[in-house]
Amino acid sequence: MSIRIATIDDVRDAAEVIHRRLSPAPLIRSYALERELGLSGDRRVWIKDYGWTPVGSFKVLGALNWVARNASRIGDRPIAAHSSGNFASGISFAGRTFGKRVIVVMPDTAPEVKFNLTRSFGAEVRTYDIARDHETGDRDRLTREIVETENAVQASPYDDADVIAGNGVGGLEIVEELKRQGRAVSHFVCQVSGGGLMAGHALAIADGFPNARIIAVEPEGADDFKRSLAAGARTRLDHPSSICDGLLSYDVGEHNWPILHRLVRSAVAVPDLETRRAMKWFETVHGLRTEPSGAIAAAPLLSRAVPLDDGDGDIVVILSGRNVDPGRFREWVCGV
After folding, report:
1. Full-prediction pTM beyond 0.90?
2. Among 12, 18, 108, 120, which one is most buried in terms of CB atoms within 10 A?
């Protein structure tokens, strides 16, 4: 069965949908990270902070575009989705925006802030035991049951061309703002899991800055994309593990892989300890409380795991979300 692969034209079309309903997340120059990295000349570091969206993460972009593009197909039927938490609140927000009922399947260990955000926009939440999901397949089973018993239309949190295109609108915003300032980009550093965030942004960055080095970052215990790059084919992990709850997909999506394989030059697998240090750095230096999945893209820069001397442009880092329970945040940043 053939699949539709998102293109830069799809991203541009999605921008019309997104910008009618959502203000761009800020692109902030980090003078502190420039000093930390010891950059020479006029090179700058920019952080795209999706913590400022109404759901506290980038996921609302893809969700809004998906619901808009599928509104007639959905009609009066509910939307079903599974999510570790951020797409849950994103699709809930999108459902409320377009007047659609939403039912989401979330792991029982999801942060309370993600449960609360999802319910606050009107979605119904059902949970499963994530610790045994690799054995039981309950996440997918429960989602299928909703589709079958409630005649729901299923939305993928990442493996869908409309979701990828919506996410890519954030990348377009980066390109347009930096071009307006007359800047060039040498390195773009972004999280990867299922691939919806990175695939959409890679389309925009590669189109706007063809010479930029696009670098994927994922947890050491959930490095399916790094393994996929090495193998030249999608590689599945049966039991991904990390404090980065938003980066624990079993493999990269079918719609995402062709884009990532073509545009992403390298992948870095980060130990959770380095992610915790990045979380502490964001709080100490910028006063931002970030979730692990949000902070991880900065970790290999802070640990010098990404060489930056192979270019003379600016560096862009994605802060993908800030939805973390205060108690867990304090536990993770304490002592690092």
Report:
1. yes
2. 18
